[in-house]
C-alpha cells in the first residue's frame, strides 16, 4: 500500500509482496473443527453468494465453487466424533436461498445449533452458541450482515438467559422460536421499509438505483403497485451486472427503466431526483458499506444536492467504524475483463466501498426513517 | 473617618466596555467630595455603573505608603458601587476584622504578598495598602467569616443594586443608602469591636439590626440578607451547589463556573477564600469573567499557613498545593489525586455531635472543593467525580453505622477510580489499537495520557508506525510524552505547532486527548487542539479523540471564551533559557499590553472523526446518548 511518507515507500519496495493474490479471508481456525472452518476460497464467500443469486457465473468462480462442493462432503464427517452437525454447512444451505437475507441464514443456522444441542443449562447453551457464532464469523469475515446477525442473536440469547426462567427447556424453546421468527421478521422488515419509503417517491420522479438490493427492489415494487408514476435509472453495476437484472425485473413491473454504464452517473445526475441504494452493512458512524460504486454515486449526488437514501434492515447495523476505504476487511471478487489481463498488471478487486455519513441523507430502516447519526444511538442501546 | 478621604492622584486605566453591562447607578453627585471630581471622568468613560469593574487597579501598587491614598482614591472611584466608600471608611478603624469585609468587597485591587506579610498590627497605611492581606486574616478564621455575611447583609443592598439583577430597579435608592451606610459602618465598627470580644454571631446580628433601622424602609435587613442568599442561590441554583442556607453559607463552594466579573459573587467568594490570590493587573477585557491571579504569589502564603488551617484536611491541602504549583496536571491525574485525598478525608472523618453524616460530610466536601477551586479551577472530570461522590454520600442509608458508611464511601471512591478511569483506559487502548495499522504515521498533540497508553500498547503489539509529537509553548508538554515514547523505542518526530501545516501531508491519523467532550460533540481540550484538528480536517486526515466516558458532560459550549481557564501571563512573556529573545520580559505591567494565556479550547464536532471511549468507538454526535444512558446509571446506582 502506498503511504504518504517517503520512508514507507522505500520500505515497501524492499519488502515487496504481490498483494493482489493475498488470501484475505483465511483466519486461524478457532478450535477443533480445524479443517472445516478455513474457507477454501480466497474470494469472499458473501459476494460469491450474491453473484450466485444474480445468476452471474464467471469461469473461475465456477471452478472454485465446484472444488468447494467436492471438498465439503469429505469434511462433514471427518471432524471430531459425536458432532456430525456442522453449523457452516447449515449456514451455507440456508444462504443459497436467493430470497433469504444473510443475517437470517446465519440465525437459522444458529437455531439449528440450538436444536441439535445437548446442553442442559442456559450457560452451556450460550457457550455452544458463542462457539458456533465465532465459527461462522471466522469462516467469512467479510460479510457484515453475517457478523451483525450473529451478534444480534447472541445478544438476544444472553438477554433472555438473564431473565429468570426456572425451566431450561422453556427458555430454550423461547430462544428457538425467536430464532425462527427472525426469518419472518426479516421479510416483514422489508415490507415495513417499503411502506415507509412510499412517501418519498412522488409522481414523475426519477430514481437512480445502484446494485441489486432486495430491499430497494421491494420499495420500487410497492411503488409500482401503488400506481405511482416514476422512472428508474439503473447503473450497469460491473462486474456483477446487477443493473441488467434489475432492469429486467422492473420491466416486468412496467416501470420505465433506463440502463447506464457506471461512468455515466455524473452525466445523468441532473435528471435524477433521488438516489436509492441498499446496504451490506450500516456502520456506527452512520455510513454504509455497499457494492463498489456507491461512494462514487453518493459523492456526485451530494455535490449536485440530490438526496441519497439508503434502505437497510436494522439487523445490518454493525459495530464497525471504518475511518477510510481501506479500513475494512478486504473483500475481493474476481473481475472479468473479457480480455486476458497480463499478469504484471494489478487489478483492484475489492467488491465494496464505504460511504461516509455526510453524503447520506436518510436511512430507511424497520425502526423508522433515521438520520445517519441515530445509528450509533441504536447500537449503543442494543449492545451496551 | 471622612478625613481619610484623599483626592485621587492617578487616572484609572482605560476601561473598554465589552459584553453585558447593566446600567450603572448615577454615581457622580452622590460620592463623597474627593471622588466627585473623579466620578465625572469615570462616568464619562462608560455610562454603566460598572465602569470600574472590581479588577481595575491603578498602576503603582506595591509601595505601601503610597497605595493607601491611591487605593482609597481608586476605591472611591469605584464609587458607583458600594464598595469604594466602605473601603475608605474602614481604614481608620483599628480592628482588623472589620476592614476585611469591607475591604474585600471594596476593592479587588489586591496587593501583593509582601504587603500581606506586613498586615497584622501595622498602622492604617499598610493596612490600607495591605487591604487584601487583611483578608487572609479573615481567611485564617474561616469560621468567623460568618461575621461578615450578616454584617454585610445591608451592604448587600448596595451590592444588589450593583448586581445585574437589581441594578435597573433601584438607581435612586442607592444614593440614600450610601449616605446611610456611612452611619451604618460606624455602628458596625463598634459592633465588630464587640464581636471580637464575643467572637460570635451576635454582634453581626446587632449590627445587622442597627443597620436595618438605618436602611430604607423598603430594604429591611432580612430581605437584604435574603437577597444576599438570593444572589448566591441564583449563582448556585444551577447544578453544582446544595442550596446555600444561612448556616452553610460559609462552607458552600462558590459555583465552579462562577463568573468573575460579577463583583458581588467574587466578594462572597473572597470572603470564604482560604487561598489569598492577588488579582492580576492587566486583564484582557473579553476574559474578565474568568479568574486570573498573579501566579507564584499564593504558594509561599499557603505553605506558611499549613499548620494553621484547621478546617482543611492535610491531604486536601497537599493536593491543592500540587495543583497550584503545577505538579499534577492532566484531567485524569488531577481527578485521581483529588479522589484519593477525599478517601483520606473520609477515613479520618468523624461525625460531629448533633449532625448527620450525610449533610455534614457533604458540607465538608464542598468546603474542600472550594479550596481546590481557589488553587486551580476544576476540570470537568473533577466536577463529575465530585458530583458522583456527593451523590453517593447522599444515598448512604441512614441505618449504616459511621464506620460502615465510611468504608462504603471509600470503596465507592475506589471503584470509581478503577472502573471509570483505569479500566476505561484499558478499554480505550484496546479499541484504539485496532485502528493503528502498519505503516501509519500518527500525530499527537501535547501529552494526553490516554493516547500515550495507546501508542505504547500498539508498540508492544509490534505494529510498525511512527509518531509525530506536536508541542506548543508555554507548557511544552509534548516533551514529556516524547521522552516516554523514545524510552520505549518508538520512532518519533518532534515539532512545534507552527509547523502543523507543513507536516500534515504525511500524517495518516491524528490522535488527540480531551479534557472533556460536551453534549454537542465539542471537544474541550488543551489549547492548540482545535488548531491541530482543523488542519487535519483540511488535509482529510481522520481525527480520533480518546476520552473516558466519565469526562462527558451534558453542557454545551459554542466557543472557547465563555468558559476557560487563564494561566500565568508571565509564562508567555518569559522564554526560559533563551535570554536573547526575552523581549517581553518586564512588560507584564504595561497598560497597553495584555497577555492572554488560555489553557483550554473548544474543537467543534465537525472536525472530529471519531471518539474512542470505554463504551466503544462512537461518532461525536453520540455523546449525548452516552450521557443520557450511562451517567444517570452511576449517579442513581
Automatic annotation (TrEMBL), chain A:
<dbReference type="GO" id="GO:0003743">
    <property type="term" value="F:translation initiation factor activity"/>
</dbReference>
<dbReference type="GO" id="GO:0005851">
    <property type="term" value="C:eukaryotic translation initiation factor 2B complex"/>
</dbReference>
<feature type="region of interest" description="Disordered">
    <location>
        <begin position="17"/>
        <end position="44"/>
    </location>
</feature>
<comment type="similarity">
    <text>Belongs to the eIF-2B alpha/beta/delta subunits family.</text>
</comment>
<dbReference type="InterPro" id="IPR042529">
    <property type="entry name" value="IF_2B-like_C"/>
</dbReference>
<dbReference type="GO" id="GO:0005829">
    <property type="term" value="C:cytosol"/>
</dbReference>
<dbReference type="InterPro" id="IPR051501">
    <property type="entry name" value="eIF2B_alpha/beta/delta"/>
</dbReference>
<keyword id="KW-0396">Initiation factor</keyword>
<dbReference type="InterPro" id="IPR042528">
    <property type="entry name" value="elF-2B_alpha_N"/>
</dbReference>
<dbReference type="GO" id="GO:0005085">
    <property type="term" value="F:guanyl-nucleotide exchange factor activity"/>
</dbReference>
<protein>
    <recommendedName>
        <fullName>Translation initiation factor eIF2B subunit alpha</fullName>
    </recommendedName>
</protein>
<dbReference type="InterPro" id="IPR037171">
    <property type="entry name" value="NagB/RpiA_transferase-like"/>
</dbReference>
<comment type="subunit">
    <text>Component of the translation initiation factor 2B (eIF2B) complex which is a heterodecamer of two sets of five different subunits: alpha, beta, gamma, delta and epsilon. Subunits alpha, beta and delta comprise a regulatory subcomplex and subunits epsilon and gamma comprise a catalytic subcomplex. Within the complex, the hexameric regulatory complex resides at the center, with the two heterodimeric catalytic subcomplexes bound on opposite sides.</text>
</comment>
<dbReference type="InterPro" id="IPR000649">
    <property type="entry name" value="IF-2B-related"/>
</dbReference>
<keyword id="KW-0648">Protein biosynthesis</keyword>
<dbReference type="Pfam" id="PF01008">
    <property type="entry name" value="IF-2B"/>
</dbReference>
<keyword id="KW-0963">Cytoplasm</keyword>
From TrEMBL, chain B:
<feature type="compositionally biased region" description="Low complexity">
    <location>
        <begin position="37"/>
        <end position="54"/>
    </location>
</feature>
<keyword id="KW-0648">Protein biosynthesis</keyword>
<feature type="compositionally biased region" description="Low complexity">
    <location>
        <begin position="185"/>
        <end position="202"/>
    </location>
</feature>
<feature type="compositionally biased region" description="Polar residues">
    <location>
        <begin position="20"/>
        <end position="32"/>
    </location>
</feature>
<dbReference type="GO" id="GO:0005829">
    <property type="term" value="C:cytosol"/>
</dbReference>
<dbReference type="InterPro" id="IPR042529">
    <property type="entry name" value="IF_2B-like_C"/>
</dbReference>
<keyword id="KW-0963">Cytoplasm</keyword>
<comment type="similarity">
    <text>Belongs to the eIF-2B alpha/beta/delta subunits family.</text>
</comment>
<feature type="region of interest" description="Disordered">
    <location>
        <begin position="1"/>
        <end position="139"/>
    </location>
</feature>
<feature type="compositionally biased region" description="Polar residues">
    <location>
        <begin position="206"/>
        <end position="216"/>
    </location>
</feature>
<dbReference type="InterPro" id="IPR037171">
    <property type="entry name" value="NagB/RpiA_transferase-like"/>
</dbReference>
<dbReference type="InterPro" id="IPR000649">
    <property type="entry name" value="IF-2B-related"/>
</dbReference>
<feature type="compositionally biased region" description="Basic and acidic residues">
    <location>
        <begin position="238"/>
        <end position="266"/>
    </location>
</feature>
<comment type="subunit">
    <text>Component of the translation initiation factor 2B (eIF2B) complex which is a heterodecamer of two sets of five different subunits: alpha, beta, gamma, delta and epsilon. Subunits alpha, beta and delta comprise a regulatory subcomplex and subunits epsilon and gamma comprise a catalytic subcomplex. Within the complex, the hexameric regulatory complex resides at the center, with the two heterodimeric catalytic subcomplexes bound on opposite sides.</text>
</comment>
<feature type="compositionally biased region" description="Low complexity">
    <location>
        <begin position="72"/>
        <end position="86"/>
    </location>
</feature>
<dbReference type="Pfam" id="PF01008">
    <property type="entry name" value="IF-2B"/>
</dbReference>
<feature type="compositionally biased region" description="Basic and acidic residues">
    <location>
        <begin position="1"/>
        <end position="15"/>
    </location>
</feature>
<protein>
    <recommendedName>
        <fullName>Translation initiation factor eIF2B subunit delta</fullName>
    </recommendedName>
</protein>
<keyword id="KW-0396">Initiation factor</keyword>
<dbReference type="GO" id="GO:0003743">
    <property type="term" value="F:translation initiation factor activity"/>
</dbReference>
<feature type="region of interest" description="Disordered">
    <location>
        <begin position="153"/>
        <end position="268"/>
    </location>
</feature>
<feature type="compositionally biased region" description="Basic and acidic residues">
    <location>
        <begin position="163"/>
        <end position="184"/>
    </location>
</feature>
